[in-house]
Amino acid sequence: MAIQWFPGHMNKARKDVAERLKDIDVVIELLDARLPASSANPMLARMAKGKPRLMILNKQDLADPAITEQWLAWYRAKTQTEALGMDAGERAPAQRLIAACRALAPTRSGLEKPLRVLICGIPNVGKSTLINSMSSRKIAKTGNMPGVTKNEQRIILEDDFELYDTPGMLWPKIEVEEGGYNLAASGAVGRNAMDEEEVALELLKYLLVHYRADLAARYKLDEETLEGMQDWQALELIGKRRGAVLSGGRINMQKAAEIVLTDFRDGQTGRITLERPDEWAAWEKRAKAI
Ligand code: G4P
Q1: pLDDT tens-digit series, residues 239-261
Q2: How far does residue 233's CA lie from ligand 1's centre (Å)?
Q3: Are the C-beta atoms of residues 169 and 13 closer than 8 Å to each other?
Q4: Is the CB of 87 under 6 A from ligand 1?
Q5: Interhelix angle for 253-265 vs 231-241, to 10°?
Q6: This prediction's pTM
Q7: Which of 42, 142, 220, 273 can bridge 64 by disulfide, Cβ–Cβ 3.0-4.6 Å?
Q8: Which among 110, 115, 120, 112 has a CA at the least distance from the CA of 100?
Q9: For the chain, which domains are there?
């Protein structure tokens, strides 16, 4: 699948982040808990090498709690990176976040050496929402506009704690095919930059294996009927159930795809995570072998 992922102005964002990183003590990367590995920026990992990092798995209210636990453990064990789960509805997330950052850079404290923290994340991952909920003032504009960059902001959370918010920085190429589909399913990719039917079919393929009961419950289908079904058959069935039918009785697959994607994004299909650490490792290995 070809998705338009790296628009020209992203090069400027990369340069801005590289410049900013020089005087940063801790890097926070906000990930989507439903697709932690796909939403992680490999370019940032390289650029921030050597700096203490904190991974936040945001939107955990939409993700499968058991798999979020797997990912948090994976980050801590495999990458020696601190990791926290979070969601926009949480009260006072700043306290947890500040404490985690301070623990990562214990020598930085006091007014002379304020702790400087950079927060990064792909568009739509919930960066503005989190920053707003951490700050008493409305300082970052929230919205659902993947690919739109905002200017860097400095937010003083405590007298000796400065948070730098950068414009979204994407990476040039999606190496793992499944990662591209997962990003598209999550809404991180603009509508014009992907084929919604293809993305919905990939999503259904995964749900049929891992979340068949949720799928059956959402669309009032029989779980046994879904067993062994192909993704396109499931899409047709959902289209039929939801009245996405064209004249002559044909299923409107585009409409059915939109329904499946919107339900997933809004959490209506259930708490779902599209990748597990062991699956991701296998996908990555295969992508590298190609
Ligand atoms: P960004 O700055 O990273 O681009 O993302 P932003 O905060 O604008 O959030 C993108 C969308 O994701 C928003 O929804 C926001 O409410 C939602 N969101 C952010 N964090 C969470 C979370 O932890 N859980 C859930 N369920 N949703 C989250 P929207 O539809 O664009 O706007 P609205 O519904 O807030 O009006």
Answers
A1: 999 999 998 999 999 999 999 99
A2: 32
A3: yes
A4: yes
A5: 90
A6: 0.91
A7: 273
A8: 115
A9: 10-165 (3.40.50.300), 195-289 (1.10.1580.10)
